[in-house]
Amino acid sequence: MNTEFGEFEKYVERIGGWGVLVDSMKQFEKDNIFLDNHAEEWRKLHSEEWVAVFKEELIGVAADLDELLKIVEGKNIRQPYSAAISFIFAKKIKFVLACQAAHPNAPLSRFRRRR
Fold first, then answer.
1. Residue 15: what pLDDT?
2. Would 53 disulfide with which of 59, 83, 84, 114, CB 3.0-4.6 Å?
3. Residues with Cβ < 8 Å from 13, sequence gap 6 or more?
4. Strand 96-100 relative to strand 82-88, pairing
5. Could you report the per-residue pLDDT of 33-71, keeping only the tens digit for each?
6. CA-CA distance, 109 to 26, in Å (whole number)?
7. Distance of alpha carbon 60 from alpha carbon 75, whole angstroms
8. How many of the other CB atoms lie within 10 Å of CB of 40?
């Protein structure tokens, strides 16, 4: 078995199985749609800032990505869903950064620093 896939299977088991993973992927898609639907509104309010969306709710705004990641981690999100994170450019440009939300079995910092 591929070592990386074996690690992934262990992670899937820790978060509650394949159903939970699929649900989290569906939620991530909904959060990105929510982000897209509010992009113009947020461009006026949060131009040149980072925003984070979780469960179709704006959960954080910051000028610096590291600051926003701390905000997301501080939410103590217990579900293994992913937060949708994006930078709101002054001009209309689409850029989305996906990161794992703060979860006790998969801390955000582990994914952020992996190269």
1. 84
2. 84
3. none
4. antiparallel
5. 999 999 999 999 999 999 999 999 999 999 999 999 899
6. 23
7. 9
8. 10
